[in-house]
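Technical annex, item 7. During the second reporting period the consortium partners agreed on a shared format for inverse folding records so that results from different sites could be compared directly. Each record opens with the tokenized structure and is followed by the designed sequence. A conforming record, contributed by the partner at site C, is shown below for reference.
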């Protein structure tokens, strides 16, 4: 039986609470694409898994909390920017996901 992964919101909320920060203390440090800070409600929605953050907001949260980027991109259902920028072919992407699945579910 596989263990259930935490959600993106749970990881982000846990990181904030571990640092004893309020939503209002975090949001000035997290900027949207237009440079404006996110709102406390937006962060609350992310932490309760009601929203998936934009790539820019996700990267800002990862940097602010110093969390492992690959793990959070996985939880967000997003491809990390450095991998997306490679411009892989269809065959390369299919092969990579097959290898990933084999690694997660090795034969018994």
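Designed sequence (site C submission):
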């Amino acid at each position: 039986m596989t263990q259930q992964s935490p959600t993106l919101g749970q990881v982000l909320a846990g990181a904030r609470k571990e640092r004893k920060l309020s939503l209002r203390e975090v949001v000035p440090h997290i900027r949207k694409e237009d440079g404006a800070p996110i709102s406390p409600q937006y962060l609350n929605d992310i932490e309760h898994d009601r929203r998936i953050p934009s790539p820019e907001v996700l990267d800002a949260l990862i940097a602010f909390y110093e969390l492992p980027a690959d793990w959070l991109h996985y939880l967000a259902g997003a491809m990390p920017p450095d991998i997306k920028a490679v411009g892989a072919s269809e065959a390369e992407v299919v092969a990579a996901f097959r290898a990933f699945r084999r690694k997660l579910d090795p034969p018994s």
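Residues 8-80 form a domain with the 434 Repressor (Amino-terminal Domain) fold (CATH 1.10.260.40). The CA atoms of residues 45 and 78 lie 18 Å apart. All partners now use this format for quarterly exchanges.
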